[in-house]
Structure formats: structure tokens, C-alpha cells
């Protein structure tokens, strides 16, 4: 799927403002009015220095937080007006999170971790296990599925985390510095999985990263600074290995 | 999310922290075990009391003329007050007469096995040559003597002729024979003994020797002073004391199939309605071991309930321990909670997860406690000589109670977890 033929807008945020400590003397505005549009199947990188507000933006896009002002529609759902329960469902069905610190549930096996989003989606046990095995196979971790998370290396953990992120077949993958804690070689492996998911399954991926090289692999690069998007350009693309 | 999934989840996280889980359970285990143990031992004690009482003849009803404890009087000013018990001695008309007893038997004949009548003559000394022995002299009717359940070593009991003619015959203990007749139970039969009662000498012919109950304690050093019972025919005793067949107390024995409690009330009503209605000073009371026993039973169960409540306090302490650990666990797993929320867990499912963990903890503790309580209770009650099982009600209550503790003390930490902001929770290190 080439960028040209990409489909409808799946993430549409307008004039997003986020303030903390509202009404208090230390009131703080982190985002000053951000507009962002992501189409289905796009691979977008968000770059910016720490403190630029990119994490806050990611939390809002990931439906973990609500903007103070502005509109945000995710796959047709008005996130601003959604209640806690609806936000949980959005996170469960439409978004897959991949964290820098993997965030696997400790002392729990790989397969149980992958099953977790399906558990919250109410999918039956046998179906959960079947799909979890399939996903673990996709990330090349099927032989480690009964290992507990503390018995795995960083790269292995992140692969489990990716399998977990796509368990409910979400439209969007939100990856926050997914290679930040990994060596270059392992990081490469993780990035290849993301590209594969993007190309073969048409997943929309939003990648937050510090690394200019990794950002360069994506289709579009958004630069955020001091709570505003200050630059937007095409990436130079990714050559499949 | 399904209940089963939650239970599995709870088991998983409890297994992940084995030592901590066991230590937390300990409070619940000790609490439940002590409640069950106390209830079991309480049952054993009740059983042992019942046993020893039924040996004493729970079917006996003691009928007694009692002083009215107080009388209501109205003073001239209209003030109602209770006057204390009168100090009057019993007058002739206050006693139960033989006629009354006969009429009682006519009224309740089919429900009464017999009436045990006794007449105490007093304490006396039996002299024979230079030896003497202390005796307590009492006249018995034949039914009363049967109830006394004497084991005869020689001779016979009273015949109806002995009773009717008020013959001066007596039955003495082997103890007395041992002291005064070199223990020859046959030799003593037919001998006349002299007894000093109230400074008067009486002569009786020995017709039987009974075995003194070996269990009755007596002091070996002063065994010469030991007093044993000497039995006379009732009429002999009545004549001797000039009591003219008036009784201040006697015993009714209900027939085997009879409800003692009902008979108790009926006998009391019979006397008080018929004979004592207009008696200002005296009335008839009835009592039986059966009624005392049921009172004692309820008292015992109250006591064991009270002790169980005290033991229950340790459950409260255990519950607070559970809450404490759950709070620690929630804080420790902040990041996990954040991750779960990011993966789509609702506040409700997080809350359920932690409450289930707390319930599982308490329930496992409760089950171990119940087993431990049954084992300890059985060991102790076996040592007491009774094999009883723990009361089923106590087991069910213990289970429900430990579950309640789980919900109650688990709710606050679980709610804290549920209400966490996912972003803060994810950022928590």
C-alpha cells in the first residue's frame, strides 16, 4: 500500500490545548493548539526534545487523557466527550500501545501478557490462546510463550509487547520510544516488525522517537517543540530488508 | 470479564508473592481456627454436661414447699411495694399431706412412674459394745428406696409389711459393718443395734447391708467420724419424728416416655391451684435436672459464643492486615495498573481484580483456618473423652465471614487502584 492510496482520516485533532493545574497559580499550558491528521495506514514519526509536549500529545491521541480544549475524533469517535468506560473501550479496541519500558505484567508468562487485551475485550479463552499463539509466531516468539516476562531479554520483551499491542487488531499502534532501551541491532529488529505491520496489515503507526534515522524511515515526520508542531515533512522511506 | 478469569488472575498474583500471601493469611487462619476450635470444644463440654446429668436422673422432679419470696402490698397511700420474705416458720397447714400426694397420683397416674417419699430423722450414733459409727437416718418409701439404687450385699430391702406396720428395721452400709462387726455382712443380719438420735435411744433390727458408694469421698484419717446413710421404712421414721405424714419436699419420677418439662409445670400448677392458692406465705415449686440442664446448655452456648466473639477480634486484626498488604500491593503494582488501563481495563475490572485477590486471600485463609480449627478442636475434645464434630453452622458462618472480610478490607485498596489516573500510573517508577 503506497502513501498515495491511503484511505480516510483516522486521527483528526484540531486546536488541541492541554493545561495542568487549572485555576491555580502554577497553571501550566503544555500544548498550545495542535492540529494533527493521520490517515489510515500511515506510518508517522513524532520527534521533539523532551519537554516539548510530545508525550502529552501521545497520551491524548492514545485516549489516556483528554484535551482541555479542542476536538479530537479517533476513528469516528469523539474522544473529548467520551466517558471513562468508553475511553477504556477505545484503548482496548482501537489502539495498541508499545512502551519504551515494555510494561509487561511481571511474573506472568508471555502468552498471558498477549492474552490480556483480549481478556478485557471479553474474548473466549480458547480463541484467546489460539490468537495469542499466532501473534507470538508473527513476532518470532512462539518458543518462549511460557516464559515469564522476567526471564526474557529486552528485545524479546518488546516483541511480546508488540504482539500484545495488536492482539485486538487495533487500527492504530502508538509506539513511544520503542527502541529507546534497546541496542541498535535489536532496535532494528523491532523497527522491521513495525514496518511489516504497516505494509502487510495496513496498520496505522505513530512512532515517537528521539532518533532522526528511525524517524527518517517513516512516511511523514512531525516535529514538535514547545507545545506546537513546528515542522512537517516526508520521510525518505524504508527499504525492506 | 468472567469471574473465573478473575479468580485465575487472583491466584496468579497471590502465587507470585507466596511468602507475603501466607503471612497475610496467617491472621485470618488464626482467627477462624480459634473460633472453630472454641465452638467444637463448647460442643464437647455441653455433651459431657448432658452425659453426667442424665446419669443423675434427669426425669426426676423435685417438689418443694417454698416461701413466697415477696408479697405485693398496697399501703394506705396507694403506694405499691414488695415486702420481703416472711420470717414465719412453716405451720402445719403449709405442708404437703399424704392426701395431696394420693390425689396427685389420681390426677396424673399414667404420667408418673412413682413418688419418692423420704422423712429425715436426723444424724445419730450407732453404738455396739465400745464401737460407734455416725449415721444419717432417713425413712424411705419403697419407691424411694428403689430410686436410691442400692447394691445389696446381704439381706433384703423393706417389704410392704415393714412399711405398713412401721417395723423397727434398718438397712446399714458395709462401711458401718466393717467398723463394728468385723465386716461380716451375714453375721450382722438380725442383730439389734442401738442408735442415739437427739439424745434418745432407738433400737432397730438390721435386715440388710448395702455397698457404700466407693466414689463418695471420705477422709481415711478420720474414718470413724464418717457418716453413712441408714435407711428406715418411711412409716417408722414418720412415727418417730411425729411428722404425721407431712412433707416439705418429695420427688416425682415421670414415666419414661413422658415430657418432663410439661409434667413439671402441671405438677406445680396442680398444687398451687388446688391447695396453695390462698396460702400467703408458702407455695409449691418444682424443679428437675432436665430444666436445669437446658438452662445450663443455653448458658454454655452463650459462653462459648462470647469467647468466639473475642476470638473474632483476631479476625478483625487479620482483616486489617489484609487491607494493609493490599494497599502495599496496589502501590507496588501502580505501573501494572497503568498498563492494564492502557490495554483497555475499565475501572470496574481493576476494582474487581483487586477485590477478588483479597477475597481469595481471605477465603483460602478461612478454609485453612477451618481445617485447623476442626483438627485442634477434635484433638482437644478427644482428650476430654468426647468425639464431636465442629458445628456446621459455625463452619458456614466462618466461610461467609472470611469472604466478608475480603470484600470489606479489600474494597478500599481496590477502589484506590481503580481510580488511578492511567498516565500517572504508567509514569510511576
Structure description:
The complex is a heterodimer of chains A (241) and B (429). By secondary structure, chain A is an alpha/beta fold. Chain A has helices spanning 54-61, 84-93, 110-120, 125-138, 154-165, 184-201, 212-216, and strands spanning 9-20, 28-39, 43-47, 69-74, 77-78, 95-98, 172-176, 204-209, 220-225, 228-234. In chain A, the strands form 2 sheets. Chain A has a 6-stranded mixed sheet, sandwiched between helices. Chain A has a 4-stranded antiparallel sheet with strand order 2-1-4-5, with helices on one face. In chain A, strand 1 and strand 2 form a beta hairpin. In chain A, helix 3 (110-120) packs across helix 4. Chain B folds into 2 domains: 2-52 and 296-427, no CATH class; 96-247, no CATH class. In chain B, the strands form 4 sheets. In chain B, strands 6, 7, 8, 9, 10, 11 and 12 form a 7-stranded mixed sheet that branches. In chain B, helix 2 (18-55) packs antiparallel against helix 12 (392-418). Chain B is elongated and about 110 Å long. The model of chain B has no long low-confidence stretch (mean pLDDT 83).
Amino acid at each position: 500500500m503506497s502513501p498515495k492510496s491511503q484511505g480516510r482520516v483516522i486521527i483528526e485533532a484540531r486546536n488541541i490545548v492541554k493545561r495542568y493545574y487549572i485555576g491555580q497559580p502554577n497553571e501550566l499550558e503544555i500544548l498550545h493548539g495542535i492540529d494533527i491528521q493521520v490517515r489510515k495506514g500511515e506510518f508517522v514519526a513524532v520527534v521533539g526534545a523532551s519537554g516539548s509536549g510530545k508525550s502529552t500529545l501521545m497520551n491524548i491521541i492514545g485516549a489516556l487523557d483528554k484535551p482541555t480544549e479542542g476536538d479530537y475524533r479517533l476513528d469516528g469517535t469523539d474522544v473529548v466527550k467520551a466517558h471513562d468506560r468508553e475511553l477504556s473501550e477505545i484503548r482496548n479496541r482501537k489502539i495498541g500501545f508499545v512502551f519504551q519500558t515494555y510494561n509487561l505484567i511481571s511474573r506472568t508468562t508471555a502468552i498471558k501478557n498477549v492474552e490480556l487485551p483480549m481478556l478485557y475485550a471479553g474474548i473466549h479463552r480458547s480463541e484467546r490462546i489460539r490468537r495469542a499463539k499466532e501473534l507470538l509466531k508473527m513476532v518470532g516468539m512462539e518458543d518462549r510463550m511460557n516464559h515469564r516476562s522476567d526471564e526474557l531479554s529486552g528485545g524479546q520483551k518488546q516483541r511480546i509487547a508488540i504482539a500484545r499491542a495488536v492482539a485486538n487488531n487495533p487500527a492504530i499502534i502508538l509506539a513511544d520510544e520503542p527502541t529507546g532501551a534497546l541496542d541498535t541491532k535489536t532496535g532494528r529488529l523491532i523497527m522491521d516488525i513495525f514496518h511489516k505491520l504497516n505494509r502487510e496489515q495496513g496498520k496505522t503507526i505513530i512512532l515517537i522517537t528521539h532518533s532522526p534515522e528511525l524517524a527518517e524511515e517513516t512516511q511523514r515526520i512531525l516535529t514538535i517543540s514547545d507545545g506546537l508542531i513546528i515542522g512537517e515533512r516526508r520521510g525518505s522511506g524504508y527499504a525492506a530488508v | 470479564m468472567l469471574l473465573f478469569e478473575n479468580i485465575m488472575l487472583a491466584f496468579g498474583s497471590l502465587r507470585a508473592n507466596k511468602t507475603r500471601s501466607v503471612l497475610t493469611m496467617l491472621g485470618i487462619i488464626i482467627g477462624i481456627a480459634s473460633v472453630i476450635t472454641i465452638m467444637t470444644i463448647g460442643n464437647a463440654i455441653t455433651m459431657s454436661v448432658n452425659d453426667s446429668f442424665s446419669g443423675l436422673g434427669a426425669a426426676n422432679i423435685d417438689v418443694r414447699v417454698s416461701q413466697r419470696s415477696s408479697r405485693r402490698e398496697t399501703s394506705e397511700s396507694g403506694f405499691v411495694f414488695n415486702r420481703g420474705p416472711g420470717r414465719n416458720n412453716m405451720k402445719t397447714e403449709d405442708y404437703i399431706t399424704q392426701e395431696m400426694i394420693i390425689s396427685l397420683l389420681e390426677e396424673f397416674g399414667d404420667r408418673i412412674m412413682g413418688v419418692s417419699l423420704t422423712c429425715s430423722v436426723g444424724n445419730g450414733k450407732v453404738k455396739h459394745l465400745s464401737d460407734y459409727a455416725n449415721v444419717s437416718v432417713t425413712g424411705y418409701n419403697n419407691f424411694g428406696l428403689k430410686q436410691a439404687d442400692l447394691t445389696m450385699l446381704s439381706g433384703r430391702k423393706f417389704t410392704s409389711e415393714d412399711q405398713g406396720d412401721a417395723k423397727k428395721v434398718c438397712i446399714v452400709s458395709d462401711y458401718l459393718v466393717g467398723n463394728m462387726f468385723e465386716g461380716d455382712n451375714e453375721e450382722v443380719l438380725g442383730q439389734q443395734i442401738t442408735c442415739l438420735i437427739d439424745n434418745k435411744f432407738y433400737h432397730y433390727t438390721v435386715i440388710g447391708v448395702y455397698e457404700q458408694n466407693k466414689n463418695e469421698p471420705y477422709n481415711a484419717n478420720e474414718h470413724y467420724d464418717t457418716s453413712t446413710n441408714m435407711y428406715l421404712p418411711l412409716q417408722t421414721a414418720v412415727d418417730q419424728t411425729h411428722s404425721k405424714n407431712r412433707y416439705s419436699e418429695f420427688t416425682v419420677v415421670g414415666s419414661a416416655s413422658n415430657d418432663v418439662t410439661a409434667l413439671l409445670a402441671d405438677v406445680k400448677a396442680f398444687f398451687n391451684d388446688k391447695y396453695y392458692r390462698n396460702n400467703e406465705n408458702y407455695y409449691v415449686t418444682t424443679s428437675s435436672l432436665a430444666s436445669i440442664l437446658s438452662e445450663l446448655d443455653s448458658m454454655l452456648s452463650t459462653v462459648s459464643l462470647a469467647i468466639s466473639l473475642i476470638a473474632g477480634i483476631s479476625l478483625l486484626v487479620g482483616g486489617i492486615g489484609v487491607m494493609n498488604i493490599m494497599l502495599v500491593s496496589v502501590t507496588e503494582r501502580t505501573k501494572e495498573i497503568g498498563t492494564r488501563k492502557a490495554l483497555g481495563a475499565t475501572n470496574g475490572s481493576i476494582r474487581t481484580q483487586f477485590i477478588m485477590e483479597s477475597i481469595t486471600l481471605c477465603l483460602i485463609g478461612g478454609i485453612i483456618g477451618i481445617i485447623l480449627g476442626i483438627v485442634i478442636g477434635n484433638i482437644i475434645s478427644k482428650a476430654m473423652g468426647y468425639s464431636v464434630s465442629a458445628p456446621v453452622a459455625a463452619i458456614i458462618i466462618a466461610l461467609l465471614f472470611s469472604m466478608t472480610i475480603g470484600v470489606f478490607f479489600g474494597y478500599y485498596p481496590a477502589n484506590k487502584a481503580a481510580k488511578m489516573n492511567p498516565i500517572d500510573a504508567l509514569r510511576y517508577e
